[in-house]
């Protein structure tokens, strides 16, 4: 129950296309009902500091190195829902344009797009969705369908790291695509008795 609640709270941050005014933040959505004002303020100020740092890392072409423009935009949007809606801001527009360029460039290299980690693909799908693109029809490319295939083909025998896989599921879920029951079952199978998931770094690339 808690897990679901948390997921929905997280997904609540993904309805940016309809939100133009940021309401007073509900602090209980940060770390559960125990969150007090002091903690909430500290989290908020960390969020702002982190956003500033992220903006500081932006490259001259308005993207981020290491193909991380998707995840950077997603973070900025999660930290500040009005970020993208600031249509006056040339910076936000150029950044989103760079996201388009980066994703199209990756798609044009068919091989590298096929090989792209399923987590990175999830980040791109979420960033596109968060910036009001239709990832099922992104300049004629159906990124969501591709993501679905990648989730279906995910070989659970070859990994101990479910972080990228979870990101892919989150991307399906947050953009309104159907999440296969089998995928939820896969995650449930690897969940430990303490509620945690195993984390193995970089055994295989997914
Ligand atoms: C608020 O939460 C923080 C972190 O959990 C804790 O250190 C602090 O004592 C709490 N303050 C109050 C007034 O409860
Ligand atoms: C959130 O983004 C908007 C639009 O770019 C900006 O005006 C505002 O200052 C940002 N808020 C914070 C707390 O950074
Ligand atoms: C997104 O694109 C797909 C495929 O073209 C279309 O079926 C769907 O209605 C579009 N969704 C929205 C919200 O426009
Ligand atoms: C993964 O391992 C299980 C149990 O060892 C086996 O039954 C299954 O066929 C394997 N799946 C793949 C895709 O190799």
Automatic annotation (TrEMBL):
Signal peptide: 1-21
Keyword field: Coiled coil, Secreted, Signal
Cellular component terms per the entry's GO annotation: extracellular space
Coiled-coil annotated spans: 73-107
GO terms, biological process: cobalamin transport
Principal location listed in the UniProt entry: secreted
Gene Ontology MF: a single term: cobalamin binding
Subcellular location per the Swiss-Prot or TrEMBL entry: Secreted
Gene3D superfamilies membership: 1.50.10.20
PANTHER family found in the cross-reference section: TRANSCOBALAMIN II, TRANSCOBALAMIN-1/GASTRIC INTRINSIC FACTOR
Name of the featured protein: Uncharacterized protein
